[in-house]
Specification:
434 Repressor (Amino-terminal Domain); Rossmann fold; alpha/beta; nine-stranded mixed sheet; 2 domains; 9 strands
Length: about 400
């Protein structure tokens, strides 16, 4: 799977004619432009990243093993920098990707949430030129006639840090504000985005997809209509499945995920300090690792197993449900989302990064509340990366089917 990932990323770099570098793009986030008041979704920077023809897209999709028969259009990609709010409700800016079909009018808007990235411009961040999951997903969906919108999230990409990791409120607000900015950017190119939106995402982006669905459907004057929700391998049940599963498991990145989550909630909620959560000497070593300059795998190589990393009294209190961190996890669970759209929760049985129980529990909870939902098992040998590569084409096929029906 690692060789396949490398092939995927190198092919992206070859077929897209890349635009300005990230360093030059940072000029869009000056102090003057940050003084944006409450005007969320305002565009403060827009940069062309690249384009590809139908033939180039078809060749690219075939190379990485994704279906190329549904290519209807070429694709152009643009990075947007826009106004939003951070985890404390303060005005800030964030960045994201907008990909438009070049040969047909959009049949709908696909929102994609990317997976975990500890590095500000890591390989998961969609608007990072030639690196992230964004260009591949843009090729898959925009070439099929959908507009593709993908946030980098607050604190990643060209947004000032820190990143509020697995914080459902900012995932939703940054996504809603990017949809607003994308609509405005498309209008400048004489393209009208449909009101119908299809939500998907991988890993952290799966949780963010459900958070966004809830935000859209509970907003009284929302212009967006959710048609379908199809996240892949998302940590929806943080409190009951994901945190306990990673704490008890032996995956190579378990401690990195858990440390990222704990540091994030310490920064957001302020109820504990790092010394209350992490055992020495890791309490001093952890904060610098999450400054946006280190990748998750790099962090994982430094950290010990979870039961050595965390203070025993912290883990015991979280397990008992008496620690503030336990209630913070529950506040960011997304198994309580009551979607009015059809929902498919894709997962792999061999996933040790986001345990399958997340999808199973979420499906049961949502079904009990009357949601039209099904958990889709991608296979007994499917791990976390494979869930992305196998799941995305299935999501595209389902969205195509629904778009035709409309």
């Amino acid at each position: 799977m690692n060789r396949r990932v490398e092939k995927f990323l190198s092919t992206v770099c070859l077929i897209f004619a890349l635009g300005p570098t990230i360093a030059s793009a940072q000029s869009a986030s000056t102090a003057e432009e940050l003084d944006c008041g409450n005007r969320r979704g305002r565009i403060v920077g827009s940069e062309f990243l690249g384009s590809a023809t139908r033939d180039e897209i078809a060749q690219f999709l075939a190379t990485i093993g994704w279906p190329s028969g549904g290519v209807r259009s070429g694709v152009s990609m643009r990075r947007l920098v826009y106004t939003t709010i951070d985890a404390h409700g303060t005005s800030t800016v964030a960045s994201g990707l907008l990909a438009l079909p070049t040969d047909v009018e959009p049949v709908g808007v696909v929102w994609f949430g990317h997976g975990t990235s500890a590095a500000r411009s890591g390989q998961s961040v969609p608007s990072t030129p030639g690196l992230g999951q964004g260009p591949g997903v843009a090729a898959l969906f925009a070439a099929g006639g959908f507009a593709l919108v993908a946030p980098d999230y607050v604190g990643l990409g060209l947004s000032p840090g820190p990143h509020p990791y697995l914080h459902r409120a900012t995932e939703a607000s940054a996504s809603l504000d990017l949809l607003t900015a994308a609509r405005r950017a498309a209008q400048e190119e004489k393209v009208i985005l449909p009101q119908s939106v299809y939500l998907t995402g991988f890993s952290q982006g799966g949780q963010a997809a459900l958070a966004l669905d809830h935000a859209i459907e509970t907003e009284l004057d929302s212009r967006w209509r959710v048609v379908a929700v199809a996240p892949i391998a998302g940590p929806y049940d943080l409190s009951g499945s994901e945190f306990p599963g990673l704490t008890d498991g032996s995956g190579p990145t378990n401690s990195a995920y858990l440390a990222y989550l704990a540091v994030s909630y310490i920064q957001i909620y302020g109820t504990e300090s790092v010394s209350d959560v992490f055992a020495p000497p890791y309490d001093n070593q952890i904060p610098p690792l999450f400054n946006g300059e280190h990748g998750l795998e790099q962090i994982a190589q430094i950290l010990p197993p979870p039961r050595t990393l965390f203070r025993p009294d912290f883990l015991a209190a979280v397990r008992a449900g008496t620690h503030p961190f336990a209630s913070q996890l529950r506040a960011n669970d997304t198994i309580d989302v009551r979607s009015r759209a059809a929902v498919r929760l894709y997962y792999g049985d061999a996933d040790i990064d986001v345990v399958p129980r997340n999808s199973q529990v979420a499906a049961m909870a949502m079904k009990a509340a009357g949601v039209q939902v099904v958990a889709v098992d991608l296979g007994a040998s499917v791990d976390h990366p494979a869930a992305f590569y196998l799941g995305m084409p299935e999501v595209r096929a389902w969205f195509d089917e629904l778009a035709v029906q409309r």
